[in-house]
Amino acid sequence: MHVCRVTCVAVEILRRRQPSRILAKFAEPECIERLEYMRSLLSDYMEELAVLHKRHIYPPVEFVWLNGVLTSECKLDISLGMRVGAQTHVGGLVFERKRGRWICMMVDIG
Fold it and tell me: Which of 46, 48, 106, 109 has CB 3.0 to 4.6 Å from 91, enough for a Cys bridge?
């Protein structure tokens, strides 16, 4: 559930529907900075293709599959497939156990 929540919030940040500070409790600052950078790159691309922009902004995120592997006692690698509208995307997340919680270290959605 935690992985799905973080992923949905990350997608909403990329869509510019949520502020990135929402992830501050669940992700490292470097991870949030990378998401903001990816959002800026995507916004430049989406402005050029306004039709695709609408197809990615409005549909909900539906998870198709989710696989996780504990690579150590404190590290979890997740790969997932999700559908946004008619398009399927693949993503990867890395979580580390810090301060008694699973903190997202890396989000890659493509």
Answer: 109
Q: What Å distances lie between residue 31 and 7, 21, 53, 72, 86, CA to CA?
A: 12, 11, 24, 20, 27
Find the helix packing angle between 50-57 and 29-48, rounded to 10°: 130
Convert the pLDDT of each residue in 22-50 to its tens digit: 999 999 999 999 999 988 887 766 666 55
The span from the CA of 50 to the CA of 21, in Å, is 27
Q: What are 80's two structure tokens?
A: 């997932």
In which residue are the tokens 């580390």 written? 96
pTM, entire model: 0.83
